[in-house]
Structures are given as structure tokens and as C-alpha cells.
Design a protein that fits this description.
It is a single chain. This protein has about 140 residues and is mostly helical. It contains eight helices and no strands.
């Protein structure tokens, strides 16, 4: 069953609903202690997929807040960003990172490919620490 009697959904049911594929190596944190002691759900929390989808959620939240403050950001841009939060093209991000020699810029550009209408506003006014530090806190 996907729910405990009277309790919250089981982690594996929530993962299935979110489309998390625990067999994908990018959905698993690699470390010897993880192999021995952690559940797949715990390992996912520290995985590259979780990290970079969190970056995308943070950029989307930033754009929403900037729109509320009066910046010229459209609903279409926000919708594209929301739609692309969970699908990371890791190969594109790696190519961009090699080109720019910067992990955050690699993912900014890969996110821009996935949400082209929002390309100009992704990471607008932010520093690399905005996504890095906040993701560390969320994880």
C-alpha cells in the first residue's frame, strides 16, 4: 500500500509520484557509507538529481518573487520554468559547464534550453551562492 494506516504516504510512493527513478545513478549519492547504511530515499536526498532540481525550484521561486516586486517577468516564463524543474539534461549541463568552466552557469544554460522563454531571467540578480547555499540548507 502507498499509505500507512492513518499516516503520511510511504517514501517510495511519493518517489513514484514524483517520477524519481532510483535505478538512475544520478538519483543516488555515491559514498561507501551510503552503500552500507542508507536507504534509497536517503541516498536520493544527496543525489545530483535532487541537487539540480532544487536549483531549478530556487530559480523559479526567485523569478516569482521578482515578478511580484514588479520586474517584467511573464506568466509564460514562469510556467516554462515550472514545467522544466524535474527534467535535467545532465549531458547539456556538462557541455555548458566545460565551456564556461562554471557549474552553476552550466545549469543556468541547460535550464534555459528547457525553458527558452525564461532564458533571460533564469538566475537574474542572483549569485552562485544563492542556489548552492540554499540547496545545502534544503538537503
Amino acid at each position: 500500500p502507498s499509505r500507512r494506516r492513518g499516516g503520511p504516504p510511504r517514501p517510495t510512493a511519493m518517489a513514484a509520484e514524483a517520477g524519481i527513478d532510483y535505478a538512475d545513478p544520478r538519483c543516488k549519492y555515491e559514498h561507501p557509507l551510503v552503500e552500507r547504511y542508507s536507504s534509497k530515499e536517503m541516498s536520493y536526498i544527496w543525489s545530483p538529481h535532487k541537487k539540480f532540481t532544487t536549483w531549478r525550484r530556487l530559480w523559479t521561486a526567485l523569478a516569482q518573487a521578482e515578478k511580484e516586486l514588479g520586474l517584467s517577468i511573464t506568466d509564460e516564463q514562469l510556467a516554462e520554468m515550472r514545467a522544466a524543474c524535474d527534467t535535467v539534461d545532465f549531458e547539456a549541463a556538462e557541455r555548458y559547464e566545460a565551456q564556461f568552466r562554471h557549474d552553476v552557469m552550466g545549469h543556468v544554460h541547460a535550464f534555459g534550453d528547457a525553458a527558452p522563454a525564461a532564458r533571460a531571467i533564469i538566475h537574474l540578480g542572483a549569485t552562485s551562492c544563492y542556489v548552492g547555499d540554499n540547496t545545502d540548507l534544503i538537503q
